[in-house]
Amino acid sequence: MNNRDKKLKVYLDRLFLKYKSKYSSDDPVWILNKLKNPENAEITAFIISCYCYGQISQIKFITETFLKSINYNVLRFVSEYKSSRDFKFIKGFNYRFNNDKDFECLILNIQNCILKYGSLKRLFLKYYSTKDENIINSLIYFSTELNKIKVKGTKNFSYLIPNPEQGSTCKRLNLFLRWMVRKDEIDLGLWNREVHTLKLIIPVDTHVFRISRKLKLVERKSCDLKYAVELTNKLKQFDPNDPVKYDFALCHSEIEK
After folding, report:
1. Residues spanned by the domain of 148
2. Residues 91-104 pLDDT 10s
3. Which of 9, 123, 200, 228 has the fewest CB atoms inside 10 Å of its own CB, making it the most exposed?
4. Is residue 257's pLDDT more than 80?
5. For residue 95, which phi and psi values (nearest 5 degrees)?
6. Domains in the chain: how many in total?
7. How many CB atoms lie within 10 A of CB 183?
8. The pLDDT of residue 1
9. Given phi > 0 = left and psi -120 to 50 = alpha, else beta, which region is 189?
């Protein structure tokens, strides 16, 4: 490791220590702390992650409004959802690029995967291999399965669950996996026995992209999946087993300037 990288490691580790504690910065992940049932937390985390674009306050507002309306029992609501009976709970659930039919489509796709595989974790693990360099292959199948059901009236459902084959950074899918695999005061670690943290890819949004460019961590200029992989590989120099641990700190330090 050269002198510049040594200095970068010191800086990144300081950022990590600053933000590693619970409630260190405003974030939708804290909503999940209210949920005790792991299966309930898993589905809730996936739904929240799908809507993690835009302002944090707005993300928290729409997701908490929905959760309160169903008494935080997402597992039961999704598993037993029937449009004729339950659409009233999500009617008007419109957020930026997505409308309430997109949300219904999301619920039905999750329901279908639960019926078919038993849980989102089992779906992901069906295509996960420790021999793969990272989780991209599994993520492709995961995304494909969760895009199978179509609902009339959707506005932009594919935006909620992008496919890695299209080159997107897949920030929100990778964010969900960070929550599921890493285990500390921030992330839940519900899948940490089956999936290793070194296989994760950092969730790259505009904030992480901006600060990683400022720090010259990556030479690539396009904000895409290749950028996310390159950034992850660079961060492995600073922590080979858990490079994605820097994500929360990088993101929120940029948000808070």
Report:
1. 3-255
2. 999 999 999 999 99
3. 9
4. no
5. -145, 110
6. 1
7. 15
8. 80
9. left
